[in-house]
Design goal:
heterodimer, A: about 80 residues, alpha+beta, about 20% helix, B: about 140 residues
Chain lengths: ~80, ~140
Amino acid sequence: MKLRILTFGIARDITGSGFLDMEVPEDATVADLESHLRQKYPALNRLASLLIAVNTDYGARDRPLKSTDEIALIPPVSGG
Amino acid sequence: MFDIQLLATPLSLDACRDFVTCDDAGAVVEFIGTVRIKTQDKRVLCLEFEAYESMALQEMRKIAEQTLSQYPVLRVSIHHRTGKLIIGEIPVIIAVSAAHRAAAFAACQFCIDTLKQRVPIWKKEVFETGEVWVAAHP
């Protein structure tokens, strides 16, 4: 299935775009997507943390993804 | 009651204070974050704040709700700014009111500490010699 992933901060710099369009297996989970992204963009592995938000919630890693989900790549936050 | 704002314009301390002040409050505690001139001996030209807006607002709301349920406080106001800020400008204001000061102090600290851990907002430091996303690398 096709997924669109929003990226922010240094994750956007690393991936080169504010959003990524990716093709993943139909039963892909958050963990599968993370693994896919880390392989495709190795610089992500040097970050202090990397989370994936699904529909504006920090998603559990075993959560299955849907093509209609709003998915975001969340590098280490630094607000405040 | 809580008031959450994510703004691209200068924040107003009066707005936050006015929201939380009420007849039952014996204490109002305000935290004001400011842009400082130096980090590790390098002079900061400006900070750039970027937010995943819909989620940042949601996380800030959750923090306000948690604060109101965990502490005996009356009202919470959390305002965060996005965009470019220079030295002395204010990226974040948190105001909390309570009947008594101990809860107001503790709740205000809880708000800013939790905001800094959870809210999807990112800060980039711009120096004369380059730019760095804060805390991105261990």
